[in-house]
Amino acid sequence: MRISLRLLYINHHQTSPTKLAKRSDSSFWRNRSTAEEQTSTKHRNNEWSRKMAIVSQKVSDLSGKQGNDSQFAAVVVRQHPDIDQPKALDVLVPELKSFVDISDNLVILEVTMPDNSKRDVYVALEVFNEAAPDMSKVLKEARGTRGRIPGTRVGNGG
């Protein structure tokens, strides 16, 4: 998630945008009317000049911690029971440890029903291998999804 904060009425002689960004939002907005009154008074004396700065900061969707772009990874959630379309998350790189990769122990199946409807099924490798006494042999002897059926020959039959 990217947040942008507009900072108004910056005294360019005394306060930098960085210093203002470090102040809590509530103190900035609580003192805003005071700052506006001071600005109108001091502007007449040319001590203040009216400026605006936009501070853009990335925030982790998981923890709410802030960081710069180089500290973040983009994570796309392609499928989850709570969503109907893919969603993008901004995640700090150290937070990626919470996502344990199980791809080495996962079998992805595409199941086509007799009515030609398809769906993907995700099965743990251990559970998949228990479906047949020798699953390794079954897979080696199964037909491929592309090309010729194993054992067929190319030729004119002679």
Task: Walk me through the structure.
This protein is an alpha+beta fold and 158 residues long. The chain has five helices and seven strands; from the N terminus they run βαααββββββαα. The chain has three domains: 2-59, no CATH class; 66-96, no CATH class; 103-141, no CATH class. The protein has a three-stranded antiparallel beta sheet with strand order 1-2-3. The protein has a two-stranded antiparallel sheet with strand order 4-5. Strands 6-7 form a two-stranded antiparallel sheet. 2% of the residues are buried. Mean pLDDT is 77; it is low at 14-31. The chain is elongated, with a radius of gyration of 30 Å. β2 and β3 form a beta hairpin.
